[in-house]
Amino acid sequence: MADLLKVVVTGASGRMGQTLINLITKNGKLELVGALERSNHEWIGQDIGAAMGGSELGVIVSEDPIEVIAHAEAIIDFTTPSATIEFSKFAAQARAIHVIGTTGMSEGDLEKIKAASFHSVVVRAGNMSLGVNLLVALTKRVAAALDDEFDIEIIEAHHKHKVDAPSGTALMLGEAAADGRGISLTASVDRGRDGITGARNKGSIGFASIRGGDIVGRHDVLFASNGEQLTLSHNATDRNIFARGALKAVLWARDKQPGQYDMMDVLGLN
Prior knowledge:
Elements: E1 5-9, H1 15-25, E2 30-36, H2 48-51, E3 61-62, H3 65-69, E4 74-77, H4 81-94, E5 97-100, H5 107-116, E6 121-124, H6 130-145, E7 151-158, H7 168-181, H8 185-188, E8 189-190, E9 205-211, E10 217-225, E11 228-236, H9 240-252, E12 259-261, H10 263-266
Parallel strand pairs: 1-2, 1-4, 2-3, 4-5, 5-6, 6-12, 7-9, 8-9
Antiparallel strand pairs: 7-10, 10-11
Helix pairs in contact: 1-9, 4-5, 6-7
């Protein structure tokens, strides 16, 4: 039997962090060896299991990524762009797998992730669920089949605590639609409408964001033409789907060479 893969979870106190920790402790192929939180967080110095309201797990919450990551083989990271960039440097130094579910990254952030991937395996995705990645693949195929007489609109809904918009998943879908059309999303994107905006630009890819309550995540890709509409849709009702995808990604990455990968690679959809 292979040795357990030693994993660190960043943002350990967050909803995703706690979900990941619960699933890792029940997984027979992974071992939780570190839990990271931001400086001065109230959980620092506590056993992560006890801090989460359960039994002790023998892992103390730390604010020192250098020390924690040095003893890990993999990091699962759903935090913020600035934190993820820092973690990517430490992962590269430790030659550790870096699974990234962080969204809202800029082009400059992505360049820094790319630099880190020369030394470590990076699996990055705006969404790690199987269903969403199938939706991405379908969006690309439908966009390629339908010409620009069909307007493309991407509508996403999330809980009221989400801080970035459009969601990382919505942007994945926009990129897929643009790829299918053979155009640049940057050149065709329409992300803000308010007031007298004028008629819709032909060939543009529009985005709309909804925030409210405890919505886990819903994404619709609308292809609308005169006389007909086609909608591709995915609705997440359980946050565990993202965590399960992240665990699948980290195990898949164990024997891979340094470089950038995504969930399409993990699921064999490329």
